[in-house]
Amino acid sequence: MNIKFRLTAMSFLQFFIWGAWLITIGNYWFGTKQWSGAEFGAIFSTLGISSIVMPALTGIIADKFINAEKLYGILHILSGLALFYLPQAGNSVVFYWVIFAAMLCYMPTIALSNSVAYTILKNNNYDVVKVFPPIRVWGTIGFIAAMWLTNLSGNKASANMFYIAAISAIVLGIYSFTLPKCPPQNLISENATWSEKLGLNAFKLFGTYKMALFFIFSMFLGGALQLTNMYGDVFLSEFAKNPLYEKSFMVKYSTIIMSISQMSETLFILAIPFFLKKFGIKNVMLISMLAWVLRFGLFAYGNPADGLWMIILSCIVYGMAFDFFNISGSLFVETNTKASIRSSAQGLFMMMTNGFGAFFGGLVSGIVIDKFFTHNGARDWHNIWLSFSAYALIIAVLFAIMFKHKHNPNEVVTINH
């Protein structure tokens, strides 16, 4: 079978698993189970903890001891088994530990899927920069397809979303064992320190003012992303409590409306080279932060009737908010670090956004919403989104003032994503 097609199938399933529950879990948590917001924040913090702990460890295992495609398959099967058990959790504490186990296995597969794809493509003499992006975009399509399936099958608030994800994970795990072999490269020196093996040398970058600021702001923006993942679909679905909106298209198909965000993401990525060339990395990252302000602000004033355009525009703006920081940030790391620590620095960037950012974003937002914006079990979404918008605006203003980076318009911009 064609190598590119096989890797496309892998990419599709990789993010189909995530899309089946990530955006809709809030409906299950708040609507079906009616558990608390603070505990819900802790659920999303498991993604952050897993992103901090596991990728480096699994990277060492794949580099030294076991074929990457086999490790990838084992992790997916284990995460699938945990997801299968998740609906049996009788209380929020058990649910937390089971989903934590699932995330410890799933989160490192995101990086491993890239490693497997790169290795197989290189071994088959493909140009990775040219061939990989069209393969990776099917991951986003898989995420969208899962969101649509969950919504259209009537499972955006049911335990079945976890069964859909579990079956997909086990199928991908088994499928992984049929992929071409990706044996350990043993690229890590036997004499390397544990600090070097774990890529901790990159933490020396915190000794540089500009890099330290960049990573701190990366963490804050990672928190903003979690706010969208956690509460977007719950917000739209809870309009059903208002008799004026309970039968509206937006309430019924909230997950499909939210998927416009992922569709937008695939389009805005094409605009990044132009914006980087025209405005420079700092300004593109600043545009991303202002886009987050708009994303949350439009949600604050939107509704399923005359304010539906605000909801849709918010979802379109998401593509700019997400892509412009993640990809321009990755390029900033690429062009401002030494080759010897560049891979570790990229890992540190991901650790700050998807790790610490996700952890603190999930935990703090849950506590704040519970304490200040929930009254008699009802969430004050207007002020919740306004507070999130203010949070993003403060980050944007501080970034504009504190972060010093001179744009060179003659610098060649390449996108390797």
Task: Provide tags for this entry.
417 residues; Growth Hormone, Chain: A; 2 domains; 2 strands; globular
Question: Can you describe what's shown?
Answer:
The protein is mainly α and 417 residues long. The protein folds into two domains: 1-198, MFS general substrate transporter like domains (Growth Hormone, Chain: A), CATH 1.20.1250.20; 201-417, Up-down Bundle (Growth Hormone, Chain: A). Helices cover 74% and strands 1% of the residues. The protein is built from 17 helices and two strands. Strands 1-2 form a two-stranded antiparallel sheet. α3 (37-64) runs parallel beside α5.
How would you summarize this macromolecular structure in one to three sentences?
The chain has about 425 residues and is an all-alpha fold. It contains 17 helices and 2 strands. A two-stranded antiparallel sheet has the order 1-2.
List the helices and strands and how they pair.
Layout (H helix, E strand, L loop, with lengths): L2 H17 L5 H9 L3 H28 L3 H18 L6 H32 L4 H25 L7 H17 L17 H4 L11 H29 L11 H4 L1 H5 L1 H9 L3 H8 L1 H21 L6 H29 L5 H31 L1 E2 L2 E2 L1 H22 L15
Antiparallel strand pairs: 1-2
Instruction: Report strand %.
Output: under 5%
Low-confidence stretches: 412-417
What's the structural domain tally? 2
**Spatial sequence of strands, sheet with the most strands:** 1-2
What is the name of the CATH architecture of the largest domain?
Up-down Bundle
- Please provide the ordered H/E string of secondary-structure elements: HHHHHHHHHHHHHHHHEEH
Biggest β-sheet description: 2 strands, antiparallel
What is the CATH topology classification name of the largest domain? Growth Hormone, Chain: A
